[in-house]
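Weekend entry, working from home. Most of the wet-lab plans are on hold until the incubator is repaired, so I used the time to fold the two sequences that have been sitting in the queue since the last round of cloning. Logging both here for the record. First:
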Amino acid sequence: MFTSRNWPVTLEHGPVRLRPIRRSDEAAWNEVRARNGAWTGPWDATRPPEGADAGRTFPQLVGDFSRQARTGAMLPWAIAYSDAGARHVFAGQMTVSGITYGSARWAMAGYWVDQRWAGRGIVPTALALAGDYLFFGLGLHRLEVAIRPENAKSLRVVEKLGLRYEGRRPRYLHVDGDWRDHEMFAIHADEVGPGGLIGRLAR
């Protein structure tokens, strides 16, 4: 079960680090997002026109994420990457949301990475770190990832980690300005094995 000791938490494997996203990331976040508009735009969640909630500033977003993290509802990580031993730089986000305990014990992961660092195994490593923490640290049973059918690079991430395909959910999430179909992938704790998801990357 989640307790105050479970957040904040930093996870690391090789050059990839997951650390809590913070207000001081604003400049780096804005720079990376502006430079990656065409890269991330087709996969970015958007607000449906019927939604009443207004947009949030970056400090408001981080504040809301931090409050939810302290209650155990989500885990909002920045992905940091160290290239050739250099200091870690802001490289993307890994957000675990919808964390549920009781008889469900599941969560959903979403992620993006700076195109500058694409193709280096950063996101598979980040997702493996997050999944192992959910299963072995928090005792969750199930991790889900929803991916647009056209997002070949993201589909490759779940393939590398051996997540199970569970079918298509029509008009599942509002992404890039409309309700979009998503392919659903999942893995259960008892499918992972003692080496964890990180161990699957080694294979």
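Second, folded right after the first finished:
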Amino acid sequence: MTGEWSWAGAAVGVTLLAGLALVAAGLPMRRRATLEQRLAPYLRDAAMPSRLLQGGQPALHLFGFGELLAPYLRRLGDGLERVLGGGPSIARRQLRAGRVADVERFRAEQVLAAAAGGVAGLVGTGLLAVSKRSLSIPTMVALVILGAALGAVLRDYALGHAARRREQRMLAEFPTVAELLALAVSAGEGATGALERVCRLSGGELADELRRCLADARAGANLPTALQGLADRTGLPSLSRFVDGIVVAVERGTPLADVLRAQAQDVREDGRRVLMEQGGKREIVMMVPVVFLILPVTVLFAIYPGLSFLGFDL
């Protein structure tokens, strides 16, 4: 009974502290206007940017409290950015994952993941305390901090995993797209017309990137610059060589179809080489159970009759 009252008192104390912290954060002396808020009245006549140029990621919806908690999440994300750093790396991985480069949003998501990990750690410490009937306070705090750190790390790992998965899909689509481009160019289409035809007939991650290149070209950039943006966003060596080949063919007037076929053949060769490397690694991993499990049991069955005949007890 005493334990139940202690947990209830702890919950009431935490809730009271959270309420007092929110009240203190909302005091007029702490609601100082930022530089953006002070300059906003003088910049109202400025043209607003088009919504088509804004990021395509949805806003954070925290059970209807997204707008209320957004300033606090932004501050926590800024603090996390100052502590961890790595903003350019996060922006590159977001572009590789096909998302808008928004480091501030990712830090907010990382704060939410850390909060979820802290709550999971708190629940775990509660279960351990109930099962063991006693658990030291430093151990509980350490488990909560460990859960929060694990949540932040897992969010960062999820972003890198999404970027790698998307690049693998693009590499799988690349030979087919290159062959279609070569066929379109051989049929008499220009570079831009071939890209439009392939984007209209195909789908996938690489086709989406090519559509983005065409949109950049229609917006005023020349085709080599738009394709170079594709190479910069993805960071794949094969796509970089593909873009370099197209740019050289467009600028110098060399046969584009032969270049595209050669690029597709190179990607297929790279895919075979990667499969051979993965097969070699899997072969080594498959030897682990054979050497450490099957072979000792086989040796034991072989020497057991002789040892038992000599009188050794196993």
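Plan for Monday: verify the second prediction. Residues 50-57 have pLDDT under 50 and may be disordered.
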